[in-house]
Please model this.
Amino acid sequence: MNYIGLFNTIKSNGDSEQAAKMSAYMRDKFSFLGIPMPKRQAFCRDYFKQEKKKAQVNWDFITFCWEELYREFQYVAVDYLVLMQKYLTPDDVPKIKELAMKKSWWDTIDGLNRVVGNIALVYPEVNPILLEWSKDKNLWLRRIAIDHQLIRKDKTDIELLEKILVNNLGQSEFFINKAIGWSLRDYSKTNPDWVRNFIKRYQNKLAPLSIKEASKYI
Model:
């Protein structure tokens, strides 16, 4: 199956009633076909299986997905990147940055941060790039930087985490303050004392939302 065939299959199985609900959930920022995640993943299963055997990332496919009108295709691209993440290298980071800056919203960004985080874990030379992203004017790049170490547990680079978080304190942006809280909350499961101390040291700069999220398990 080539990806044009996959796209045609997805497009021919839309549900207008479901599409309206999905679009409303995303504040009508994107057009949807109305295909929920389980159904979308079922459609992609055979194609993804073939792609994984190639052990090479197909950026033409990813770009094609990102250029499509319907939001489900951006989800397909993120699913594909997660599937193929062990084949990604630092050379792919600029391409992922381009994706993050187009058709941006939390739904795709929170998938891309997992992909970028895996690259940085395998290739620590990517860390300075993420530190730069943490200061970028684009809030979605900052969100990726803040949350890219989620679920790393004892492999978390604490020094990098603190620098990135400090670069984003004192802001009113909901998506940044929420991300800070999630990052701290996740790490609190591994190192609650560090998170308590971080909150204490930066309490005057942390947003109430960040503190609320960070304190959930401590």
Q: What stands out?
A: The longest helix spans residues 37-54. DSSP finds 13 helices and no strands in the chain.
